[in-house]
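Handout, section 4.2: multi-component inputs.
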Amino acid sequence: MPPVIEARHLVKKFGPTTAVDDLSLAVHPGELFGLLGPNGSGKTTTIKMLTGQTVPTEGTATVAGLDVRRHPLKVRERVGIIPEQEMPPSFLTAEEYLHFVGAIRGLSHMERRCSLWYDLLDFGDQKDMLCKDLSRGTRQKVMFAQAFLHEPRVAFVDEPLINLDPIVQRTVKNYLRDFVSRGGTVFFCTHVLEIAQALCTRIGIIYRGRLVYQGDREDITQRHAHLEDLFLDMIHREHHASSA
Amino acid sequence: MRALLDAMIREEWRLHATLFDYRLFVLFPVLLAVMAAGSTLFLPVLRDSMPGSHLALLGHYTFLLFGLSVGAFGLLGRDMLTRRFGQAQVLAAAARILPLTDRRILAAFFVKDLMFYVLLWIGPALLGFGLTAPLMGVAGRQVGLLVLTLPLSFLAGLAVAFALSTLYAHSPRALLVVLAALGAAVGLDMLSLNAEAIQLLPPYQLFRYPGPTPLVATLGITLVCLAVSLAFPRVDFAGPTPRHPNTFRRLARWPLAGAHAPYVAKDLLDLKRCQGGMGKIVFALLLPAAVIWLLFHVLEEFIPGLDFLVVFALFMGLIASSIYNWLTELDSVASYAFLPVSGGTCSGARCTATLCSTWRPLR
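Output:
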């Protein structure tokens, strides 16, 4: 089966700084791929390139069969995205924001779609509150709902569990597991290693813009008992290599 | 206090530099000085249509309003920052997690506003005016007085804004009553033949009749207002969280906005619900109207047969651009980046939203 996300030699430079350097990877349908890395290592920039939010300086990428350089909007139509920092607009209610996203995506049956998410993530009683008055966790729930409102086959999620309480975290994890078991694909960025180990079927480690490791669960457990040990080992090795 | 003040000034500088582009903002004081000098060259023209005393009165009220707007924006403008910069936090709010009293934070905020705007805005403008005014026949004594009384007018406006915001924090209704009473008093005075009350502005009185009484009045108003705001600070004034029905659904079907209806609906709701509400649009309508009126009141004497259509076009242009400013400067493009929306759609939608927002308050 061809990969649903494929990056070939992606490079992103911001002036003299290289944020992502020669990154190549492939993610297949049914995979929950976790991209791990320290703060500022290039995870978010990678997601932005793969979803057509920013143009790569070099290299190519295809997502859901579409070239992200040529069809950035179509890519964003097909995928769901949870950005790392963005929150829903302050002065719309949670319900209004979901309807806004639905209107942009041209969705019908919005009441039904929304109520599924109110029930799943348990924020229906706060749907008529302005997003600025919601707790961070509830705002994150709204962002999660907007990403999956159109029932995409591919989702890019950047720290989706942040600010969520353990109950909702469990719900979200189960949802993502179920999503990939039904053939969906998730590209998951995080630096919470326990979550990545519990959730991801395959892992990539990025350090200073370079993909320094790729492997599945089996490979990780063969090398180290814990993902944390592997992660720290890789980062230290790369750090020493780059400073030598 | 010193560290807090330093950080607040640095923050204010970076905020403006980010909003207006760093290089442009560095040149802004120079631009202000040049603009003030250039405007002063028109003094003889302005004097032909308006007595010098009226011009001075207008100048003092302009500085008072500037002080009021700086104070109001500083204290109530967080909504704008959040929209423009995402989850922006200003130091005045963030400092509350440190062992600092609200009173100290508010005092630092006041001093920061005063220093920042006097040094970078008022100072250069007065420098430009002060260098050019003597060449235009303004007596050196009057120039000197204006250089003193105009900043005092700004200072008074700033202090009044701080006092009013404190009142608002305690009771929004009380603020409305005070503003309504002030508005009624000014309105009645304007309707009277000689409109004397508005001339009682202490800094203006100090300019007209230099002496201890208007000086004490000016400083008195400033100090009392400042003391009131520092004596009764209140930062937490959250009431019950408001709830809203789904207005978006109805607005998004607005036929006038066509394919851009969802974006227009979002912008209208943003405008309506953020601080200042639709009042900002009315303000954006009234201010250009006043500028146009003033401009053409003067220009019609020098441009015979001035075309009404030109006046109207300029008037509409100014209104639209000021409303467009509200809609664009306040918004963050990042909130659309992860949705399937092109930059062209965003721009087009913003133009439609501007047209609709211009039309809506006129309805």
